């Protein structure tokens, strides 16, 4: 294959579905992967995570990680368990974040009774991953054989990167997840103007977000409403990026006396650890956030905020009178401490549940978003009487129109766009928009499909 300058690209998973990003490139004497993520959602997906990979991990030279969300890193320990001994590359903060994310995952799977995952999620396998891993700066080049690799800023979460591959003068871009710029913390997604092939995400490929400028106003109104109701505002949130953005915006509302004072609990050990990484990674922030830090503002702390790393601290939240706010993982209500709070507070109509991001099919968060009046939490039926609200503007992903705008910058050059990492209707809708509006060849592959990229 190397002689004809074609690269074989296999969509191992992460196509036809939002999660489980895992793409294989073969050619030029190399085999390498982009992302190795967990497939999230239904019980069937659980089995898919632990099936054999559709390739021999021992034959893989490199693994490139676009960012540290679990659906992009969650199967790295399995890859190592199954024989991978190559090199791992990412933007530097991604390595630091991944360590905490995998340790947290190891804790969760240690309770698993269906699969003996403790043999995969071992301390040794996580340490091996860190030893194989090199953290890069944006734009720092890695030359391997006939390939040159580097990362562009995706603007999605701290350390997120679009992988740029140059082979025989042709440029291939794997976007990973693309940020919903402008972000209060991060620089905007870098513009790509000269890609020959583009493999892109499509989580919101078929719809646009509400005006992002309105999201802080909506958050303000929800907090005020909760105070008037003397209720509990529960915010299931992703420990990575979403938590830090919420803390940043609540910090602004509290310190400027825009919302009434009430106890706010950050009830997630992982969120607390990751926020510490954010505090020491400010060089990756945008100028506005950097200037605030220079002025002496701790962006993620404010009067009334209590962090509860220990289990007993978490249990004590129940004793604190309302009104109060609880920020806890997980973001789709499919695990973590938020389940205990939802069990306690969802049945009371004076309380509020605020959803701030995409809820994958099959998760409890999606069931609640879709109007479920009763859910099952830790073996018990729980009635959903609390007020359910949703702020779409907190999504960390570009919406449909901004995804089209992103591709438009390289529309004259790009030979083909592969639309991945979205539910089928989102991916196909976006592919059709790209075809119709920009005149580019766009295709939404399924998991297991493969294509050849002509790099002559």
Reconstruct the topology from this structure.
Layout: E1 6-13, E2 22-27, E3 30-34, H1 43-50, E4 62-64, H2 70-73, H3 76-81, E5 87-91, H4 92-109, H5 123-132, E6 133-136, E7 142-144, E8 147-153, E9 161-167, E10 170-174, E11 197-200, H6 215-229, E12 232-236, H7 242-255, E13 264-267, H8 269-279, H9 287-294, E14 305-307, H10 311-316, E15 324-328, H11 338-345, E16 352-355, H12 364-369, E17 374-377, E18 380-383, E19 387-390, H13 400-408, E20 416-419, H14 424-438, E21 442-443, E22 450-454
Parallel strand pairs: 3-4, 4-5, 5-6, 10-11, 11-20, 12-15, 12-16, 13-14, 13-15, 16-19, 20-21
Antiparallel strand pairs: 1-2, 1-22, 2-3, 7-8, 8-9, 9-10, 17-18
């Amino acid at each position: 294959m190397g002689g004809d300058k074609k690269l074989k690209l296999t969509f191992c998973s992460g196509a036809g579905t939002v999660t489980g990003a895992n793409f294989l490139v073969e050619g030029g004497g190399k085999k390498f992967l982009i992302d190795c993520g967990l497939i999230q959602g239904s019980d069937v997906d659980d089995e898919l995570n632990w099936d054999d990979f559709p390739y021999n991990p021992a034959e893989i030279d490199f693994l490139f990680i676009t960012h540290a969300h679990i659906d992009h890193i969650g199967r790295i320990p399995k890859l190592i368990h199954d024989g991978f001994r190559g090199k791992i590359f990412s933007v530097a903060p991604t390595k630091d974040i991944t360590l905490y994310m995998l340790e947290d995952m190891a804790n969760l799977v240690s309770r698993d009774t269906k699969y003996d995952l403790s043999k995969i999620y071992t301390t040794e396998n996580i340490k091996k991953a860190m030893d194989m891993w090199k953290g890069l700066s944006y734009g720092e080049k890695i030359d391997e054989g006939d390939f040159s690799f580097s990362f562009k800023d995706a603007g999605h979460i701290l350390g997120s990167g679009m992988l740029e591959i140059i082979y025989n003068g042709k440029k291939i871009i794997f976007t990973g997840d693309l940020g919903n710029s402008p972000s209060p913390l991060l620089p905007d997604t870098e513009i790509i103007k000269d890609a020959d092939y583009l493999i892109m995400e499509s989580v919101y490929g078929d719809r646009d977000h509400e005006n992002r400028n309105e999201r802080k106003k909506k958050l303000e109104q929800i907090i005020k409403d909760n105070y008037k109701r003397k209720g509990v505002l529960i915010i299931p949130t992703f420990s990575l990026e979403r938590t830090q953005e919420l803390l940043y915006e609540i910090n602004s509302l509290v310190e400027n006396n825009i919302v009434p004072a009430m106890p706010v609990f950050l009830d997630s050990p992982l969120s607390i650890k990751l926020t510490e990484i954010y505090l020491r990674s400010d060089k990756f922030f945008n100028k506005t956030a950097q200037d605030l830090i220079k002025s002496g503002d701790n962006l993620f702390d404010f009067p009334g905020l209590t962090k509860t790393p220990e289990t007993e601290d978490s249990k004590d939240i129940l004793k604190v009178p309302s009104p109060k706010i609880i920020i806890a993982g997980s973001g789709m209500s499919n695990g973590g401490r938020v389940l205990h709070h939802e069990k306690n507070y969802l049945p009371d109509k004076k309380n509020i549940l605020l959803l701030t991001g995409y809820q994958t099919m099959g998760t409890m968060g999606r069931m609640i978003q879709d109007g479920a009046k009763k859910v099952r939490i830790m073996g018990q039926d729980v009635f959903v009487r609390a007020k359910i609200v949703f702020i779409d503007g907190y999504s960390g992903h570009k919406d449909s129109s901004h995804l089209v705008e992103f591709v438009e910058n390289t529309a004259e050059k790009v030979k083909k766009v592969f639309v991945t990492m979205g539910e089928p209707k989102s991916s196909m809708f976006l592919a059709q928009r790209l075809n119709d509006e920009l005149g580019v060849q766009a295709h939404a592959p399924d998991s297991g499909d493969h294509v050849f990229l002509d790099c002559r």
